[in-house]
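Recap from last week: sequence in, structure out.
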Amino acid sequence: MLLLKARQALGTVPEDEGRLVMDDLDMLAAVARRARRRLRQGVFRRLLPPERQEVHRLGAAAHDEMARLAERLCEEEADAGPSGPPGDS
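Predicted structure tokens:
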């Protein structure tokens, strides 16, 4: 509730846009946990070599995308600064 009041007072990004980004990040974390759990349960060992290669390729692609996302998030945080939206002085 406090976040909603602060957002309304600042006139920042519409609630639905911010919520969509938060939901996206939450889903990414959930999918990563699910994939890690499956790997921990030994699914990789039961795959055929071509399937293992595809899992490796997809894992590398996911890693690259997550690295780019993390980099962008850091850039956005730095641009936003500690005090809130631009022009909020």
